[in-house]
Amino acid sequence: MAMIFIDEGSSVNILFKRTLDQMRAEGFEFEPVSIPLYGFVGHAIQPLGQIVLLLSVWSDPRRVTKMITFMVVDISSSYNGILGRPGLKNFRALASTYHLKLKFPVGKRSGSLVRGQKFARRCYERVMKEEGKRVCRRLP
Fold first, then answer.
1. What is the tens place of the pLDDT at every residue in 71-100?
2. Which distant-in-sequence residues (6+ apart) come within 8 Å of 5 by Cβ?
3. Domain ranges of the chain
4. What distance in Å separates the CA atoms of residue 106 and residue 27, rounded to the nearest whole number?
5. CATH 3.40.50.720, applies to 4-115
6. Which pTM value belongs to this model?
7. Do the beta carbons of residue 74 and residue 82 sit within 8 Å?
């Protein structure tokens, strides 16, 4: 299942190296990035670089596709990536945590991604399960 975490607090879009490897995105080169990322795992992380990819939201006839710049990091996550403020701005999207909905313009109409409480709970459980595995691997 492809899962992108929507983070209105993130100042960058993140793509995890594992996701890029799974995409078999050969021939892509990262642009070097010399600035580390802070605040996302408790310490500074040096990105492998940045990459620009096409990202589509939803499906026809409400599909919107944009070029999005992602910082690529080599850490584990149960998500495929994080769409932060730059990506939301690019899509002109509005996120409502209360409604678990993402709305975005599609021409003169609007599209929306809606996920219910059950889906949010499954995502949370998956994240906790993955985090539990990582914690257990670090225990002596």
1. 999 988 878 899 999 999 999 999 888 888
2. 79, 81, 82, 83
3. 4-115
4. 31
5. no
6. 0.79
7. no
Q: What is the sign, positive or negative, of the torsion defined by CA atoms of 20, 16, 96, 119?
A: positive
- What is the rounded CA–CA span in Å between residue 112 and residue 115? 10
- Phi and psi (nearest 5°) for 67? -85, 125
Q: Which of 6, 90, 83, 17 is nearest to 48 (CA)?
A: 17
Q: What is the pLDDT of residues 18-61, one digit of tens each?
A: 898 888 767 777 899 999 998 767 789 999 999 999 988 877 78
Q: Rounded to an integer, what distance in angstroms lies between the CA atom of residue 91 and that of residue 89?
A: 5
Pairing of strands 81-83, 14-16: antiparallel
Q: How far apart are the first and last CA of the chain?
A: 32
Residue type, 42: G
Q: What are phi and psi of 85, to 5 degrees?
A: -55, -40
Q: What is the structure's pLDDT at 136?
A: 45
* Bridge partners (DSSP) listed for residue 28: none
Distance CA 93, CA 113 (A): 10
The tokens for 36 are: 């580390």
The contacts of residue 51 (CB under 8 Å, 6+ apart) are 15, 20, 28, 29, 30, 31, 69, 70, 72
